[in-house]
From TrEMBL:
Annotated ABC3 transporter permease C-terminal domain residues: 272-392, 731-846
UniProt source species: Streptomyces aquilus
Entry membrane topology: Multi-pass membrane protein
Keyword field contains Cell membrane: yes
Protein name: ABC transporter permease
Record's subcellular location: Cell membrane
């Protein structure tokens, strides 16, 4: 009870000093809880949608997958007779055929894409009675003929569509126009998909290219018949050549597809929260170390009147427990706010998430509380242990906490060993023969070198701070020298404070190097290998009508088709490889100048010829002249002669197996030939600008495709990587904010610790302005110390990662010096900002009161 009373008294006596540590715990817990609530809410939204839309039993083609489009671009389908067979099965109340396709684009009369901007699909299909489970027609009526369509209310609101507007639907079968005659509203939250409905005959003709076929059959169970029993009955009626699922199985499959994506988001965000927790540990360690040092005499008195080491230790840990509990409780509440904010942000981006589905599982606040409290108590353990070692006599003499010189040397030795081991692991990763082996070594090297730098930080502080001070502070005269001595006064504290900032900036530097190297490598590869003037591609395969428009564009010397065909390859050693081959026009050898280790790429486009990559050739002992058996999906089996082996030391089309479209057509039926994945074009000599403009005009009617010249392509690649890095930097900002709080807290507590010293300096003539400048300079030096370590460490990680990327063809190491220098300079401003409040408080101290402080 005495320990608890002492802890409570100390906690509330120093509540101002604990505040920033509590904020660090709050932010970290809030990010964890916000991530969990956000992802759980998204899962709830999709679960409700899938559960509502699934029929009792769904019959699909055997090869149909919820997240896949067949290679020919047309959805896999069933004959209409399947509907009658299902309807006759025992226990079936009703059966209805459905048509659905996600390989469509819908545009308005201005050729603007009406699809989602967040990656959600555009779905076109027929309106069925089963759709009434999840939707209701709130305006107009269902489509009744080939010129009528109905859209969902969310899409109508987003794109300002109304009844009477005309939409054009583009599918692999062709284009057709229809006027909106109805608007249907979801009864549950629609996460963002755009949906258009047609009558059954129109959907079959325009989406499947054939009447009398369906993509699914929906069966409704009669009263008293379970879904499982109904599935058994339908299976007996149809046989085993169909994919038959209950409502639960159908929903589970859809949920699994979404779950993979959700898990990536969830664990990535939790990873950044973990980084923030790691940074927060340094803040908490510094806070309690300084509080223990300031209460040395008090601890000595407690020991003198009979308190044991365990009791003193326990008293500090109880304070940490209170800090962790308060910060975690507030963090859980803030986490819900973050989740709602993320939902609003996603809604602005086009993904609708309703707060009605806000999901807060019992495990979420428990996880936040446990994590926050455990991390705080663990971080406070070392300061608490040092407090317990304070001897009564030393404390009463105000000797402070014991300085263990031996422990310092041990710490330094451990730090050197860990840093050396990390450096060796990074070297081994950089010289690894395979990316798989190198990535494991890279991960080990990053962890070991990071821990090593953290442990060795106090030793590095002495030398690095002196160098920084010599370059920056010496020009400020005595004030600069005092700031330098203050930063060097407690190397352990300076090392821990700098390490907190080091972690975030190391990751920033590493990712900047990797991103910049990827852009530079790809740009170099494009300059070296790509001969085409223009590249056309989009989120969907290129429909035949867009291909035709491209081929009719004036000013082009040639247009190259590029198709990916599913096939099973059997090498001469008898091993099978279920993969794809690339069918392209012979002009592709001009559009992409692929280096070869044997033969020439142009020879691969001869009759019954093909090429393979050098890695495949090495693994299977393949040489030019050998024969590979290629079993085309949906087609025949061919024996193709290897005419070339392409060098896989390239980032473009690495591992591709080429053959001509003419060869592919001999073995793949016309209705199974896939649309182009991408297309290339070469302008006639001297007509590049005119051909570029003409090609863009030719594809105006197909906004789902982008026409890019090489400059456009490079810029888009740079923009995409830049957007990804900006998102990562935004997530890392949490860790940097916590690190800044650490600098603020360290300085604030340091000012309190040096109250008498500050009073004496003021008494002998130091002005308030000079005092504030001294504290700001001290903060700048600590921030630059952390930045220098972090940026150096991060560039080392990034350079090593680039060596691994070189194994995948990204051979250029590019250090983004403007970013690195900008971050370093920015760190100085971070130091100035962090010192504002501590410097202001120090300047307001009463000189006499400060001198009189014990």
């Amino acid at each position: 009870m005495t320990v608890m009373k002492t802890s409570m008294r100390n906690f509330f006596a120093h509540k101002g000093r604990m505040a920033l540590s509590a904020v660090a715990v709050l932010l970290s817990v809030a990010f964890v809880c916000g991530t969990l609530v956000f992802t759980d809410t998204m899962n709830t939204t999709f679960d409700k949608l899938f559960a509502t839309t699934a029929s009792d039993v769904t019959v699909s083609p055997k090869e149909a997958k919820s997240d896949d489009t067949p290679q020919n671009g047309k959805p896999a389908s069933l004959p209409a007779s399947t509907v009658q067979q299902v309807a006759k099965a025992d226990g079936v109340k009703s059966a209805e055929g459905g048509v659905s396709s996600m390989n469509v684009t819908v545009v308005n009369d201005e050729n603007k894409n009406m699809g989602s901007s967040n990656g959600a699909p555009t779905i076109a299909g027929n309106w069925t009675k089963g759709d009434l489970r999840s939707m209701e027609i709130t305006s107009g009526h269902a489509p009744r003929g080939p010129t009528e369509t109905m859209v969902d209310a969310d899409t109508a609101d987003k794109h300002h569509l109304k009844i009477g507007d005309e939409l054009r639907t583009i599918s692999v079968v062709g284009d057709f126009k229809a006027k909106i005659v109805g608007i249907a509203t979801f009864k549950v939250t629609n996460p963002g998909a755009a949906i258009v409905y047609f009558d059954t005959a129109t959907a079959q003709r325009e989406l499947l290219g054939a009447e009398g076929r369906f993509t699914q059959v929906f069966a409704t169970a009669a009263a008293g018949v379970s879904d499982t029993r109904l599935k058994q009955n339908v299976t007996e009626a149809l046989g085993g050549s169909y994919k038959i699922q209950t409502a639960k199985e159908n929903a589970d499959e859809n949920r699994e597809d979404v779950g993979e994506f959700m898990n990536v988001i969830k664990y990535a965000m939790l990873g950044f929260a973990g980084i923030a927790f790691l940074v927060g540990i340094f803040l908490i360690i510094n806070t309690f170390s300084m509080l223990v040092a300031q209460r040395t005499r008090e601890i000595g008195l407690l020991r003198a009147i009979g308190s044991s080491r365990k009791q003193v230790n326990r008293s500090v840990l109880v304070e940490a427990l209170l800090l962790g509990f308060v910060g975690s409780i507030l963090g859980v509440g803030a986490g819900v706010g973050i989740a709602i904010g993320l939902m609003k942000l996603m809604s602005m981006a086009g993904m609708n998430l309703s707060t009605d589905d806000l999901t807060i599982k019992a495990s979420t606040p428990v996880a936040g509380l446990v994590l926050g409290v455990v991390v705080t108590v663990l971080a406070a353990y070392l300061p608490a242990r040092r407090a317990g070692k304070v001897s009564p006599m030393a404390a009463l003499r105000d000797a402070g906490t014991p300085a263990d010189g031996k422990a310092g040397w041990v710490r330094g030795l451990i730090g050197l060993v860990l840093t050396g081991a990390g450096g060796y692991a990074l070297y081994a990763a950089a010289t690894a023969d395979t990316a798989k082996d190198g990535s494991l070594l890279l991960a080990g090297g990053v962890v070991l070198s990071l821990i090593g730098f953290v442990v060795i930080g106090p030793l590095l502080a002495g030398g690095v701070v002196r160098v920084i001070s010599a370059l920056i502070l010496r020009g400020f005269g005595p004030v600069g020298r005092m700031a330098e001595r203050n930063a060097l006064r407690n190397p352990r504290r300076t090392g821990a404070t700098g390490a907190a900032l080091m972690i975030g900036l190391a990751l920033v530097a590493c990712l900047s190097v990797v991103g910049s190297s990827m852009v530079a490598s790809a740009t170099s590869e494009l300059d070296k290998s790509v001969g085409a003037d223009f590249i056309v591609q989009g989120n969907q395969r290129i429909v035949p009508q867009a291909q035709k428009a491209m081929e009719q564009t004036p000013g082009l010397a040639h247009v190259t088709s590029y198709k990916e065909v599913e096939a099973v390859l059997t090498s001469p050693d008898g091993k099978k490889d279920d993969s794809r081959v690339t069918a392209a026009d012979p002009t592709y050898a001009q559009d992409l100048r692929r280096a070869t280790t044997e033969g020439t790429l142009s020879a691969a486009y001869g009759k019954d010829s093909m090429s393979v990559g050098s890695d495949y050739a090495k693994d299977h002992g393949v040489h030019v002249g050998d024969t590979i058996t290629v079993a085309f999906k949906g087609g025949k089996t061919a024996k193709l002669k290897v005419a070339a082996i392409t060098d896989d030391d390239s980032a473009l089309d690495q591992g591709a197996r080429y053959l001509s479209i003419a060869t592919m057509k001999q073995y793949v039926p016309a209705d199974q030939i896939p649309p182009n994945t991408i297309m290339f074009a070469k302008a006639k000599d001297g007509q590049e600008k005119q051909a570029y403009a003409a090609l863009k005009k030719s594809l105006d009617d197909y906004p789902q495709y982008q026409v890019r010249d090489q400059t456009d392509y490079k810029q888009e690649l740079k923009d995409q990587i830049g957007q990804l890095l900006n998102m990562v930097y935004g997530l890392l900002a949490l860790a940097i904010i916590v690190a800044v709080l650490g600098v603020v807290n360290t300085l604030a507590l340091s000012v309190v610790e040096r109250t008498r010293e500050i009073g004496l300096m003021r008494a002998i003539g130091l002005s308030r302005r000079q005092l504030r400048r001294m504290i700001r300079m001290e903060s700048v030096v600590i921030a630059l110390f952390g930045a220098l370590l972090g940026l150096g460490l991060g560039m080392g990680w990034g350079a090593t990662a680039q060596k691994l990327l070189a194994l995948e063809g990204l051979n250029v190491l590019d250090i983004p010096w403007p970013t690195i220098i900008g971050v370093f300079v920015g760190s100085a401003f971070v130091g100035l900002f962090a010192a504002l409040v501590p410097a202001f408080r120090a300047g307001r101290m009463n000189v006499l009161n400060a001198i009189a402080t014990d």
